[in-house]
Design a protein that fits this description.
The chain is an alpha/beta fold and about 260 residues long. The protein is built from 10 helices and 8 strands. Helix 2 links the parallel strand 2 and strand 3.
Amino acid sequence: MKKVVLVTGANSGIGLALCERLLIEDDQIHLCLACRNMQKAEAARILLLSLHPAADIGILQVNLGSLKSVRHAAVEVKQRYRRVDFLYLNAGIMPNPCIDLKVFFSGLFSRKVIHMFATGEGLLTQKDQVTDDGLQEVFETNVFGHFILIRAIEPLLCHIDSPSQLIWTSSSNARRSAFSLQDYQHIQGQESYSSSKYATDLLSIALNRHFNQQGLYSSVVCPGLVMTNLTYGILPSFLWMFIMPIMWLVSKMSSHFQKAW
């Protein structure tokens, strides 16, 4: 029986690159692209099939920022599959990102300059909004929508004899300083993306405590500094051509200092 691998946010960026890598590693899986936009999902499916003609690829519509859509997608998943072996929780948003120039210039001439560039702490701010469900959009899309999906398809994930895996796409921007249990939706702050990514890290730990004995394991991965639709939303592409080498150098220096420490 083919292993079923479901990837949210699979039509572009990290999600699409992940799907291609999964097929390179094992083209005998059934890969399900779970996306908000079905036209883009089908385009991604066609692209992947052009690279892997024998691949078994399906598409699924889900908007993680809508509980109605998540519940509908969960019903669809349970109708299609008897189990889900790997669930990659990759979809995420960073609405209206802006660089705080005051923080940038003050950090540039401080001892925290490497830390600032390595993590983006304080640099990126976002303007969040409320969804039709009455939740903050970033929290619902990046965290809560995924959690509801997990719980809705729980019977397909929990098998003691053959464990399933949850893999969250986290970020180096996931920081404790941006997150508060008293304001877990980050209503009061301006770093909703960072808060949401730290929340997923915490949620992954909680899921392991609750589900490991039932054959479900959760982990988080940081893809590093990569160019996606999220990063292009911060600055124009031509500026990233100059900034990326600096960011790469700073991240290497940061890793070196951390190991030395």
